[in-house]
Amino acid sequence: MLNKLKLLLGIPVDDTDLDEKLNLIISMTTDRLKILLEGFEPPEELAHIIIDVSVKRYNRIGSEGMASHTVEGESQSFVDSDFDEFADEIQAFLDSKSDSKRGKVRFL
Description:
single chain, mainly alpha, two-stranded antiparallel ribbon, 7% strand
């Protein structure tokens, strides 16, 4: 996952200067996603969410807590939750888990 994040950020894979910071971002993003998944470990098919949100978080370092910023006509604004755009995928995962927990009743 670290190498994918580095590629998206334009950091050479063999450059290890930021590895500790990037691994922390990945870990924190994974932990937050796990909460949204109601304690389930994020499966491989949702790994793209961890990568995408990690890119956003890395790009906002130094701008934490800021809702918007305007300088000379250039405006930046940040969403309330980095996971909002993935809400449908998260809900679909949760729905699939709740369906698998449902038992079947058999009458003999």
